[in-house]
Each structure stands twice: as C-alpha cells, then as structure tokens.
Design goal:
This protein is an alpha/beta fold. It contains nine helices and eight strands. The chain binds nickel (II) ion (NI).
Length: 273
C-alpha cells in the first residue's frame, strides 16, 4: 500500500482521462491520495473530487503563485471549505522566490495568514518552498503554534513538500516537527545532492508524493505524472536508503496516516450510523 500525499488531480492535464488515472492509482496499490488546491477554484475542485471518491482527500489553500489575489474574502472562503471532513490540510502555501509570480510581500502575507488559519483549525500545513529556504524557515518559526510540551495545542504539524533544500535545511525542518516530502527527482540519475538529503532524513519523517502532473519520476520522466507513479518515488527512496520497497511503502503510509488521516477516521467513527 502507498499514499500519494501530494497531487493536483483538478488540473486540466487530467480532464481527458481523470477516471482512468484514478483507477490506475488504486490498481498500483495507492490506498489514499491527497489532491491539493492552489487557489480558491482549484481548492473547490479538489474538494469536489474528494467528495466523489472514498480514497481521495483534499487540501485547500492559496499557492504563492496566486498570492497576489489573496485577501480577507479568500481567507473567509478557505475557512468555510476547510470545515469539510475530507479536507485534511491547508495547502499548498508558502514562498516561491524562483518564479516570483506574485510580489514577495503578497506571498508573505498569504503564507502567514494561512499558517494562522491552520493553527486556528488545528489542521496540518502543506508548504511549498522554492529557493526561499531561509524565509520559509523564519516564517514557520514565527508562526509556531503552542507545542504539547507547553501543555496546549498540537504543535507544528505539516510537511515541507517536494523538498529541494540541503541537509542543513532538512535538519531545521525536522527540528520544527514537520515531515519532508519527496518527489520524482529522487529517481533522477544526476540528483546526487538530493540523495544525500534523503539518506539523512529518518524514514519516520518522510512522505512520498508525485506532485502530479509535474515532476515525473524515472522511467516516465518527460511524460505527464500521475498518482500511480508514486511507487517509483518509494522505490527511489528504498534504493537510496538500502531498504526494501515494502518497508518504505509501509512506513511512509503510516506517516501519511498519522499526519493527515487519523483525525478524519476518528471523525468518521464518531459520526452516528
Ligand atoms: Ni504541488
């Protein structure tokens, strides 16, 4: 069994064959997947998919690329969407200083407001960080919710998705209590730096994800990515760590269950009938 902890099934890349893509995921042993919103329309679309399929869950949020349009109304609507029992996280949120498609002050405002929203709703966060490691870490530290050691709250829960930093950044993220998510590039022959990071991250703190339709792993690199290919990411992690595929699949599934789904299952069990 496997969990694809990050994909974008609402995108038009899947309009022609979405049903078949989802069916192939289940056939490949994917038991659950999280489809991630990047703005309000995309968050609504992600939730619509989650309502239609038992194994699909949604994250709602505004991506740094779309942060220029983020305002109080956006925040109110996100909060309303996040009440749905199949919303398992706020995301994806964060900072992208590589593309800079939104002004950096707008990115910072959207990121901070959504971190606070996640704290208020006690939901995990899914964080996007592209060439913004120092600023992302500083923002996360400044918005740390109260930790259990302080006798209240769940502490920081979430994942730094498609991790692209070095081992020092990884250690800082781990120290904050977050998971690290890895994608197709772990399978690329030239990604030696990334393999060093994967080797240093404890398996208990690691998630596998596709970020489909992007970041396609070997052997399908260059084609559209899809959740079924999360198996190749897990195989890549297993090869780097010298572990069996089954060990990586089991532990990363347990990690995703702990981060995203334990609360959902409790809620489901609590519901009468
Ligand atoms: Ni993504």
């Amino acid at each position: 069994m496997l969990v694809d902890s990050h994909c974008h099934l609402d995108l038009p890349h899947f309009d022609a064959d979405r049903e078949a893509v989802i069916a192939r995921a289940w056939a490949a042993g994917v038991t659950r997947l999280v489809t991630i919103g990047t703005g309000l329309p995309s968050s609504r679309a992600a939730l619509a998919l989650a309502e239609r399929y038992a194994g699909i869950y949604a994250a709602v949020g505004v991506h740094p690329h779309e942060a220029k349009d983020f305002d109080e109304t956006t925040l109110t609507e996100l909060e309303a969407l996040a009440q749905h029992p199949k919303v398992v996280a706020i995301g994806e949120i964060g900072l992208d200083f590589y593309r800079d498609w939104s002004p950096r002050d707008a990115q910072a405002r959207a990121f901070e407001a959504q971190l606070d929203l996640a704290t208020r709703l006690e939901l995990p966060v899914i964080v996007h960080d592209r060439e913004a490691h120092a600023a992302v870490l500083a923002t996360l530290r400044a918005h740390l919710p109260p930790s259990p050691s302080q006798g209240e709250g769940p502490g920081m829960r979430g994942v730094l998705h498609s991790f692209s930093g070095d081992t020092a950044v990884a250690q800082a993220v781990l120290a904050l209590g977050l998971y690290l998510g890895f994608t197709g590039p772990v399978t690329f022959p030239k990604a030696a730096d990334l393999r060093t990071v994967v080797a240093a991250v404890p398996l208990e703190r690691l998630l596998v994800e596709t970020d489909a339709p992007y970041l396609t792993p070997q052997p399908y690199r260059g084609q559209r990515n899809e959740p079924a290919y999360v198996r190749y990411v897990a195989e890549g992690v297993a090869a780097i760590k010298g572990l069996s595929f089954e060990t990586v699949a089991e532990q990363t599934t347990a990690n995703a269950e702990a981060l995203f789904f334990s609360h959902t299952d409790t809620e489901t069990q609590k519901r009468p009938g």
